[in-house]
Amino acid sequence: MPFIFASASKQTLENFATSGTANTQLDQFFLKPGSSRPCGVLALRVQGKGGGLTALSGISVRLGQWTSTASTSVAATSTTPAPKNNLAPACAATAGMVTSAASTVTSGTGGPNYVGLASMGASGPGGWASINVDDVPLLDGGATKSNDLFASSPTVSLSYEFELDHSEC
C-alpha cells in the first residue's frame, strides 16, 4: 500500500507569483525521490489569488521531469512533504520551494519532459490528477531526477498557491 504525502506552497509563502515577464515560465518547486522508495505525483491542486483584476487571464502550472540531474535547493528552501495519514513513515523524498514570490529553484538538466498541467483563471481553481496507476509520473527510488512545477501566464506577476500530493511505496 502506498504512502501519500502533501507539499503545499504555504510551507514557504502565502502567495507564489508568475514571472514579471509575460509568458516566461518559472521553476518554483521540485520533488526528488529518496534512495529507498520510488515517488510518483498523484494530484496537483492550484488556486489563482488575483483580486481587483480588470481583465481575464489565466495561469498554467506545468509538471515537468528533469531526466539527467535533479533540481536543488540552492536557490530555494528545503521543505518536508507532510504525511496525509499520521500512520505513514517519514517521507523519503526531498522537496524544495522558492522563498520569494517570483523566484526560481535551481533547475535540473535533461528535458524537462512535461507530464502534467493544471490551469486556472487568475482568481479561480484548477487541478490535475492521474487518471489511473499507469498515469502517475513516477521516479525510481535513488534516481537523480526530479518532478518540478513551472508557472506561466501571459499576464505578469499573478498570485497563486498549490498543493501537490505524491505517493511512495
Describe this structure in words.
Helix content is 0%, strand content 45%. The chain has 169 residues and is an all-beta fold. It has one domain (3-168): Jelly Rolls (Sandwich). The protein has strands at residues 3-8, 16-17, 26-32, 39-48, 58-66, 77-79, 82-83, 94-97, 113-121, 125-129, 138-139, 146-152, 159-168. Strands 1, 2, 4, 7, 10, 11 and 13 form a seven-stranded antiparallel sheet that branches. A six-stranded antiparallel sheet has the order 6-8-3-12-5-9, with no helix packed on it. It has no helices and 13 strands.
Helix content: under 10%
Q: Low-confidence stretches at least 5 residues in length (pLDDT < 50)?
A: none
Sheet bearing the most strands, described? 7 strands, antiparallel
Alpha plus pi helix count: 0
| Portion in strands | 35-45%
Return the average pLDDT rounded to an integer.
94
The Cα radius of gyration reads: 15 Å
Count of separate structural domains = 1
Following the backbone from N to C, one meets helices and strands in this order, namely EEEEEEEEEEEEE
CATH architecture designation: Sandwich
CATH fold call: Jelly Rolls
Silhouette: globular
The CATH class turns out to be: Mainly Beta
Number of strands: 13
Structural class: mainly beta
* C-alpha termini separation: 7 Å
